[in-house]
Amino acid sequence: MRGLAFPLFLASLALAQVSIPFWHTAGPPGDKVLEEAIRSFNESQKAYRLEARYVGDYREAGVKLLSALRAGGAPVLFHGELSFLPRLAQEGAAIPLDAYLKDLPRDLYPEMMRAVQVKGKTFGLPLGFSVPALYYNKDAFRAKGLRPPRTWAEVEEAASRLASRTAKGMVISTDIWSFNAIVMSLGGSLVKDGLPAFTSKEVVAALEMLHRMVQKGHAQARNLAEAQFAVADFLRTKAFMGIGPTTALPVVLAQTALPFGVGMAPLPREPGGGVPLSGAVLVVLKGASPEQAQGAVAFFRHFLDPRRQAAWVRTTWYLPLRKEAERELSDFLKDPERAALFAQAEVARPWSQDPELVVWYSYLEEALERSLKQGVKPQVALEEAQRKALAVERR
């Protein structure tokens, strides 16, 4: 009988351990840091066990989750994009976590936690937030005697001077995040009072600027399906500027060596303008037990370890979530370009906290493509998108 004691003891521990199925979207280079955090969390305590599974990028994961929520088989913990959170909260797919958050580190930046709130309740845990960057080819800028643009007028001027028969001054993505970054920088918003604001002056001005650059031959428009070509345009010096999150460059550098210097500048902003805070959140889904919710928050606290946070920031270029981590990052933040990018956190806000935008954004992306790739006038394309979005809202 004594020979059975130890196996039975292990079995009792396994039965007592709370299992937490976890779908995540972390690809290279950040996946190694996240996987280490999961492994060390599971090894550091016996109460909970994360059962992690990679389910693709943000959009792929979102589609899989919606299908699983309808058909069954959804995980307990989901790692998704920030703009997806309000919809999950509105539809009751995410559970509020405020009751489990009493002992988070006191130096956690409060704006990070505000970003995961919906109507005053906390429905997510911030995993990694980024701000936008204007990437540019330093070698090409130096050859033309250009300095990093500080206004959108300077962006247009630089694009015109860099354009040639074989290259464009800028590559423009027609995805909603990139366009919204410009709208926010002008002080505008895609949503007002819970309704689409696609014909507001800032939205129209943003598309007119992009349309103007494309029509003059100074910029190349790429849609989401052509995202890899947009990156290739920049890497192969077929375009010399582009907008992307701070996290984009580490992903590229993990896959290839660049033949030129890459400059990074804060996004130009008008007075009163802001920049989008975007990125990854952890969501506990409906059906989770209180113990599973507690386990998810316990993993979040584990992830907030200052040294782990520093490794996460260095690897991914996400913003640090707590002040203590910045002490570990003093050398990393000495780089003036990087410091200027991260300083945008002071004027950053969630790029979308409106659940309806998830339903409307396809109409806006269609309008962007029609204007920038087919030449339709911006006002006309945006008015059509506005009509379609309002029609859905009235149903």
Summarize it.
It holds the Pfam family SBP_bac_8. This protein is an alpha/beta fold and 395 residues long.
Can you characterise this structure?
The chain has 395 residues and is α/β, with parallel strands linked by helices. It folds into two domains: 201 residues, Periplasmic binding protein-like II (D-Maltodextrin-Binding Protein, domain 2, 3-Layer(aba) Sandwich), CATH 3.40.190; 186 residues, D-Maltodextrin-Binding Protein, domain 2. Helix content is 47%, strand content 17%. The protein has 17 helices and 15 strands. A hairpin with a 2-residue loop joins strand 4 and strand 5. It is globular. About 2% of the residues have low confidence. Keywords: Signal. Pfam families: SBP_bac_8 (PF13416).
* CATH superfamily descriptor of the largest domain: Periplasmic binding protein-like II
Which radius of gyration do the C-alpha atoms yield?
Answer: 23 Å
Biggest beta sheet summary: 6 strands, mixed
User: What count of helical segments does DSSP give?
Assistant: 17
CATH class annotation of the largest domain: Alpha Beta
Low-confidence residue ranges: 8-13
Structural class: alpha/beta
| Rough outline | globular
User: How many beta strands in the DSSP annotation?
Assistant: 15
Compute the number of structural domains.
Answer: 2
Measured as a percent range, the helix fraction is: 40-55%
Name the average pLDDT: 93
Assigned CATH architecture of the largest domain = 3-Layer(aba) Sandwich
CATH topology of the largest domain: D-Maltodextrin-Binding Protein, domain 2
Give the oligomer, counting copies of the same chain as homo and different chains as hetero: single chain
Portion of residues in beta strands equals: 15-25%
Cα separation of the termini: 68 Å
